[in-house]
Design brief:
By secondary structure, the chain is of the alpha+beta class. The protein contains four helices and ten strands, in the order βαβββαβββαββαβ. The strands form three sheets. Strands 1, 2, 3, 4, 5 and 10 form a six-stranded antiparallel sheet that branches. Strand 8 and strand 9 form a beta hairpin. The longest helix has 14 residues.
């Protein structure tokens, strides 16, 4: 039975808009996309002196189990030319699993809900556009609640 999933795509290297569009098209090979946010520009988090990110949130359904979904998005990142590098550094394409139904997964290689979502405005703003009332496990606050409580000072603007 398909499960709802919310993904966040980001890019701050090269042809960012094209990378995001191609990333969404690739995701559609394994996720039935129901909603997609506008594109947002955001200040980079965690590491200064790099280009601003463009981000899009996607909400859909998939038959993938969490580990299979992770492998699927990692392949898409690699196809887009993503290189491994310093943490929080520039990325051709980054795809994060933000939420997957009401699952809570805590493994060394995978955490759902995304453990940093509540403190990252660049994540919460596009996700709140497409899923404001979705509860975030395990506490059940909605995405909108998390955005209203977020103290992240970094700028995020719709394009």
């Amino acid at each position: 039975m398909p499960e709802e999933v919310i993904l966040l795509l980001g890019s701050n290297v090269g042809r960012r808009v094209r990378r995001l569009r191609d990333g969404v098209a690739a995701i559609a090979r394994g996720v039935t996309i129901g909603r997609m946010s506008r594109m947002y520009a955001g200040e980079p988090s965690g590491r200064a002196n790099q280009p601003w990110y463009l981000n899009i949130a996607v909400r859909g359904e998939t038959d993938f189990a969490p580990d299979a979904l992770l492998q699927f998005v990692k392949r898409i990142e690699a196809e887009a030319g993503r290189k491994t590098g310093a943490r929080w550094g520039p990325r051709e394409l980054d795809i994060d699993i933000i939420l997957m139904g009401n699952r809570v997964v805590r493994e060394p290689h995978l955490a759902i809900p995304h453990p940093q979502m509540s403190v990252r405005r660049f994540c919460l703003v596009p996700v709140a556009e497409i899923a404001p009332e979705v509860p975030v496990p395990p506490g059940g606050e909605t995405v909108r609640d998390l955005l209203e409580a977020c103290r992240d000072p970094l700028e995020v603007s719709p394009l």
